[in-house]
Specification:
Number of helices: 22
Structural class: mainly alpha
Oligomer: single chain
Distance between the termini: 41 Å
Length: about 425
């Protein structure tokens, strides 16, 4: 290992452990490397940062962020929650089942894990507590179920992986459908089992539904449920690219929220746009610095060295995938999802291809691992969001999420070693 590589690793870890924001850590490490170890003029840094974002597929991210914020403010999340309650709310454990279903529905229209936790948790954490569910169980379940937002398409991390590895974003979206539904159904089963075994809820059932409630809830949610159909149907019907589908989702969310539901007013658009701009700027800054760091890795031939090193170990594909899962579960505890994908995907992909692992399958495995990272301390973003909603400490939420995190790890193992689950729908 060269002196430059060792220096690169030391600088990056020192910055990360000094609580430097991940984007700044990546950017500063790249800047120091280019200044001290290369003759590349530093003006190239600005050019590379700009070119990193000068990408048509990347435009999908701010559009999906904006669509998610419009849907949260426009009453769509409430209607999806009511629809979930109409399906299962009358059964024992029905409110817990509603929480999981609502997260799955909102994940299918938002593409964001924290947005899913906020949209569903704001409504259901207080409702579950009133219905007799412990605060710990309610918060942990929603924090975990909300993580499905980065797996069930549309998904911002899948877009980032597609850009980092030049893999079809449309194929990644389709590949995320069955793993996302499977993980959601497994969480649903856990919610039913725990609720019934511990007698959670207010009575023998969570409550009889008013007459006509199901029909009204379906009617109100139907327009919201059409959004994933429009996005995925548009992509695979040849009408949209993923970026154009993201723009169409914004137009559709505006139409539904302002014209049909009439819960989003013109005066609200300023705050929605500002919140979306802040979130998009944060994501884009991370991506730009991540791609700059990827250039540094390529300059030091680190992906090639890793590939040669693993090839020399004569690992079987299942052993390689096990190492990848362990690595990513650890990385997910300390690194934000987009940054982890931008750093690790270009390193792992050449090895995976040599092992015969499909790049789309690898993308789903990586995102599922980092999905679990959303609920593991110290950096699990969903933990902080759920903590703010419930008033519990981050560690309390992490402890409460352990049973449902174990369910997601089980789902991860199934997808890892049964590629058919992820690839069967991919054309």
């Amino acid at each position: 290992m060269s002196t430059e590589v060792i220096a690169l690793a030391v600088i990056l870890f020192l910055l990360l452990f000094s609580s430097t924001p991940i984007a700044m850590a990546l950017g500063l490490t790249s800047f120091i490397y280019l200044f001290y170890f290369t003759t590349i003029p530093l003006t190239q840094v600005v050019e590379r940062l700009f070119n990193a974002l000068n990408s048509f597929p990347l435009m999908a991210i701010p559009f999906f962020v904006l669509a998610a914020n419009i849907m949260t403010r426009g009453g769509i999340s409430r209607r999806l929650t009511e629809f979930g309650n109409a399906l299962v709310g009358q059964y024992r454990g029905g409110m817990a089942m509603t929480a999981v279903l609502a997260c799955m529905f909102f994940a299918a229209v938002s593409g964001s894990s924290p947005a899913t936790v906020v949209a569903v948790g704001t409504l259901l954490i207080p409702a579950m507590i009133r219905a007799g569910y412990p605060k710990e169980f309610s918060t942990g379940l929603i924090a975990t179920s909300g993580s499905l937002g980065i797996l069930i398409p549309p998904s911002i991390p899948l877009i980032v992986y597609g850009i980092a590895t030049e893999t079809s974003i449309g194929d990644l979206f389709v590949a995320g459908i069955l793993p996302g539904i499977m993980a959601g159904l497994m969480l649903l089963g856990m919610a039913i089992l725990v609720s019934r075994r511990k007698n959670y809820g207010s009575s023998g059932t969570d409550g009889e539904l008013p007459k006509g409630y199901r029909r009204r809830a379906l009617r109100d949610a139907l327009l919201s449920l059409m959004l994933p159909v429009i996005v995925l149907g548009g992509i695979y019907g040849g009408f949209f690219t993923p970026t154009e589908a993201a723009a169409a989702s914004v137009a559709y969310a505006l139409l539904v929220s302002m014209v049909f539901y009439r819960e989003l007013k013109v005066k609200d658009l300023g705050s929605v746009l500002l919140a979306s701009a802040k979130t998009s700027a944060m994501i884009m800054f991370i991506i730009a610095n991540g791609i700059l760091f990827t250039f540094v890795l390529a300059a030091e031939r680190i992906p090639l060295q890793v590939t040669e090193g693993i090839a020399a170990m004569n690992l079987e594909p299942w052993q390689f995938l096990l190492i990848v899962n362990i690595l990513l579960l650890i990385v997910g505890c300390f690194m934000e999802t987009s940054s982890a994908l931008l750093i690790l995907a270009p390193i792992l992909l050449p090895v995976a291809l040599q092992m015969g692992v499909d790049p789309v399958h690898l993308g789903i495995i990586m995102v599922m691992n980092l999905e679990i990272g959303m609920i593991t301390p110290p950096l699990g973003l969903n933990l902080f969001v759920a903590s703010g909603l419930s008033g519990m400490s981050v560690l309390q939420v992490a402890k409460a999420a352990l049973p449902s995190a174990a369910v997601l790890i089980t789902a991860l193992m199934l997808v890892t070693y049964i590629p058919y689950i992820a690839l069967v729908l991919v054309p």
